[in-house]
Write a structure and sequence with these properties.
The structure is a homodimer. Chain A is α+β, with helices and mostly antiparallel strands. The first copy, chain A, is about 35% helix and about 25% strand. The relative contact order of chain A is 0.10. In chain A, strands 1, 2, 3, 4, 5, 6 and 7 form a seven-stranded mixed beta sheet that branches. Chain A has nine helices and eleven strands. In chain A, helix 1 runs antiparallel to helix 2 and helix 6 packs across helix 7. The two termini of chain A are about 10 Å apart.
Chain lengths: ~300, ~300
């Protein structure tokens, strides 16, 4: 059974009854598992994590739109987090037995139905993007809901699906496909925050580093140490071990050692297997050699 | 659903019809998956790999005895591999949602039934052993089927279950519980077989090395290199990464580099995860952080 992960971000993080109604709608779709949902009141935003095959996930996303249309009005919505729509972002992530192409096709299929059934304009992003200028979420979302009508009238901002102007109450949506994110931090055995900031700058894409790394340097004051905090956005192309080794080498430049690293939340087993493969110099390793994969594959 | 692996070794590797009848008997037990079976004619021995929960595995092992009793007579059996019985060795291995204690209990339960239903004496081995002198398979099997009657009469060799003398045609069985084995080889960028042999001696338990390592040094003549070939018999207590680092350090002593390593057959994901955790210095890592584990755990 293929497994796709879907992580819709919804512009409502204060009214528990609205969030609960959306969660209930997701749980009501057979074949979809709601793995997690969390709300942030200051962001006024909720993140739902669900998994399943394509058809059930599509049904769940459409059910979320029905609830959101009934309950969310962006004209009165305030929150710290930027947003373009009530169902702001819907990424599909290939996990098991499914390709990125499958997830791109699913994103387009869902976008088509969202626009035709609810009259909501949709922009495709990341791997589903049809336009290099509209690949990054931040670029698409710039100007937010309040600037959306004007943005949609400007050159190059006609949506991929749906009407040429925002939906009056729920704005627009950004739907697409991407690799799983790994939230990864490396703690340095120093209190020099300048070292963490310099290393972050050295490794992140935006300032010349690895293509799929976002990074920032922080102080962890209570522990008297500093941290290079990262999002690894494609662990196949920019693997964890290469980032780790680069941070280690850059830290040596300042006479600093790595104290420890931490994975925040979830990590795909393939990222860990690739790490073992690298350090142990394993030749010809295959995923089918992992005992648990073999046990699950046979039936 | 708990997953236990069971890998019975049967003293028949030449008559395909006997091997097939045993495989068919295993496949006929609901809840047991026969993952693999392979026969070696010169050893005159077959290895079956199956997985399932305790009760179905017990039923499958008992079905194997019925077939073996009908078809195998050790008085006329010849082969290179040492053996004590027709169903020579039956290890139970904890894989998922099951403890070593559960597997020990299962081994004893199966041993009890094998002895009472078929009149076959059983020795418990490895983690199920009740006697330090009878923990290792090699010690129990020494003397083989031909020396078994005399051995069973000698001090300290009454079986754990069943009659005090061998079954006339199928001898005795060794049943127990153990950790998964990892067959792991490290290839060295040299043609000096003495280096591989010295490193093997340095790391293996029998000559002063790690507790859960069996190792030998070989030449790979066609490739002009040498290999340290290992069985890692408890990857939790003697982890892969520690063995790798020790081999690497010992090789440096002779000016030799590691060319590559290889995992032969299956490896538990926990062994790979522990390797990633070690090299990336991950603090506080939990198995539930592996995305696939999380997806499977929720339902």
């Amino acid at each position: 059974m293929p497994i796709i992960e879907c992580i819709p971000n919804v512009s409502e993080g204060r009214r528990a009854e609205v969030v609960d109604a959306i969660a209930t709608a997701i749980r009501g779709v057979p074949g979809v598992r709601l793995l997690d949902h969390s709300s942030d009141a200051s962001h006024n935003r909720s993140v739902f994590t669900m998994a399943g095959d394509a058809a059930p996930l599509k049904a769940a996303v459409l059910a979320m739109y029905e609830r959101a249309l009934a309950a969310i009005d962006l004209r009165t919505h305030k929150g710290e987090h930027p947003r373009l729509g009530a169902i702001d972002v819907v990424p599909f992530v290939p996990i098991e037995g499914v390709t990125m192409e499958d997830c791109v096709a699913l994103a387009k299929d869902v976008a088509q139905d969202v626009s035709s059934r609810f009259g909501v304009p949709v922009y495709l992003y990341e791997e589903a993007s049809t336009n290099p200028a509209r690949k990054n979420l931040e670029d698409i979302r710039r100007g937010e809901f309040e600037g959306l009508a004007a943005k949609m009238r400007s050159e190059g901002w006609a949506p991929d699906f749906g009407p040429a102007s925002p939906h009056e109450t729920v704005g627009a949506s950004v739907i697409g496909a991407r690799m799983p994110l790994i939230a990864y931090n490396i703690n340095l055995a120093t209190n020099r925050v300048d070292v963490a900031k310099k290393i972050a700058a050295a490794i992140r894409h935006s300032s010349g580093g690895y293509r799929f790394v976002k990074a920032a340097g922080f102080e962890l004051k209570d522990r008297g140490i500093v941290q290079v905090s990262m999002n690894l956005t494609n662990y196949e192309k920019t693997p964890v071990f290469r980032v780790f080794e680069t941070v280690k080498r850059e830290a040596e430049r300042y006479g600093v050692q790595i104290l420890e690293s931490e994975i925040v939340g979830l990590v795909p087993s393939a990222a860990l297997n690739a790490t073992a493969e690298y350090y142990l110099q394993i030749a010809g390793f295959k995923a089918e050699q992992v005992l648990e994969n073999k046990l699950r594959a046979t039936d």
